[in-house]
Every structure is written in structure tokens, then in C-alpha cells.
Amino acid sequence: MSLKHLFLLSLLLISTASHAATDAGISFFRFAPTEDFKQYIDRAYGVDVYGAWQPEESMFGIGGYFEYIPFDSTTESQRINETGALSRFAIDVETKSNIYNFGLLLQALPFKDQVIQPYMEGQLGLIHIRTDSSATSQEGDDTPVFTSTNSSDTSFIYGYTFGLKVRLFSPKAKESRKSLRRRRSVYRSSVSTVYLDLKYRRFFSNSKSEFILPSSITRGSAPEDWTRVQEKTTYETFHVGVSAIF
What we know:
Blueprint: H1 3-17, E1 20-33, E2 44-55, E3 60-79, E4 90-108, E5 116-137, E6 144-169, H2 180-189, E7 193-204, E8 208-212, E9 228-232, E10 235-245
């Protein structure tokens, strides 16, 4: 590709972006494993953030999402050694299991700019499930003295979303209705609309991830005693959040 072609492509992208809006939001959700995955993992709560780019003349948008799900945590106190000088030191050992889901987001908004907006999304990304342990001194600050990754695995994941946005707030921009160009300029200048965002998501995976069974992490047990499982990370989530158009 020549420099001339690159220059023309850059102008096209800049022109397209100048007639687009940014949709961003945050939500809290209930996490519920499905199929065989629910035999090993309990329900939990998580947080989701996303951002998408929406051309003004199109019902479609594209962006990214990130979900964080802390699904298990255990803490126990013990002395470094039962005898000798090290018996003077006590530590708290905490083991946490988390899921991170992130990737590409595709939107379809057929009722864009309406007060009530049903919409659909498709997700394609990676799911990372891991278990980490850390030890902190009971007599010092919260800085870990020791850390260890007990299990870590990543696999591809895909899913869909059915959602409903309800307009909460839309500041009235002082503009002339005679100028479409000026209206678009004001639209892009700041937050134009805030929505209540309700949605349901369902995720699937064709490959299995390895993780540590939470019920096997018991008080006084060692990592080599914990049960490792391989299963497809399929689950659904129920979201309540807010989103805004910039």
C-alpha cells in the first residue's frame, strides 16, 4: 500500500469517527454457572465494564468488554513454624479464585435514540480462570510476604446478550435545529444521554479450562491436596447498571 493510499484511508477513518458516538457503561451482575460447570462452581457476583464505538447513521456498534468474577475466597491464620524463632511470627494465608472474561463486543441497536431501547450483543473473547495464594504478616501492613499462583488457565469463549436500556437523563443542548452539523457537534461535545441498563448474557466455550475445585481448598490443606478439574466454562449473568452516550 502506497503513502497516498494510507493518507486517503486515514482521512476516511477520521471522517467516519467524526460522525460517531461512544457508548460506555458499568454494571453489577449475578453470575450463575450452567451445564456441567455448575457442579463445581457456586453462584457469585461480578462487575462488567464496556465501551463501544457507534456510527451515528448505523444501528451497529463495535467495542470491547471486561468482566471480573471473584467466585471463592478463604483465609486462615497460622504461625510460620510451631517451634523455634519462627514461631514468634503469625501470618494470614488468603486464597482467592477469580474469573476474568474480556474480548470483542458487537452491538445491534435497532431502536437507537428512543426512550426505551431493546438491543442485542455478541461477544467473542478469552476467559481466564485462576487461583492465587498470598501470606501477610499479622503484625505489619497488608503487603504480602509470600505470593503463589496455584492454578491458571485461559480458553476462548463466545456469547450473546439481550438487553434493555431506559433513558434516565438527557441534557438539552442549546443548539439551532436548522443546522444538522451543529447538532452533531454538540452531541459529541459531552455526555448526551444516561441510561438504566438491564441485560442478560450467556457464554459458551468449546474447550475446557483447568481450575481448582473450591470445595477442596480447606483449612490446613496443601495445594498438592487440592482437586483439579477440567470443564467448559459456560455460564449466564443478570446485569443491572448504567450507561452513557458521549
